[in-house]
Structures are given as C-alpha cells and as structure tokens.
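(Structure overview)
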Amino acid sequence: MKVLVREGEQKVITTGFSFTVLFFGVFVPLLRGDGMGFLIQLALAFFTMGFSWLIVPFTYNNAYEQRLRSQGWKTLK
C-alpha cells in the first residue's frame, strides 16, 4: 500500500495484483474515478472478447498509480 498526496488531498492505493479488478472488471476504474482506465479496460475487453479480464488485474494498480502521478500526486514520505 502507498499513500499519495496532492495539495492537501490524500489517497491510499494498493500495488501489485488487483483482486477487485479480477472480480469486478471494468467497474473498478469507474468507481475510482479513473475514466481513462475504464475506457482502456472496456476497449480491451471488447477486442479480446473478455479474455483481458484475466490479464488486466496484474497490471491495473501500477497503471493507475502512473496515471495519478502524471496528475501531480506524490508519495507521502
């Protein structure tokens, strides 16, 4: 788990494998407010006929962290 901060805001994120994405698929980024992650997962699920739901849980948390960092979030020290 990591804590990211930005201008007085704070988010706790997990790293590594995402069990929530494994069980709930494209709904996880939607509920986290990660619109880009939602669109990417939706497109992958469509083009791979759902097979990507077995692969994405291994990569989602790291990709989500990178998108947050690009928006100015920093690791709490």
In short: The first strand starts at residue 2 and ends at 6. The mean pLDDT is 95. The two ends are 13 Å apart (CA to CA). Residues 43 and 49 are 10 Å apart (CA to CA).
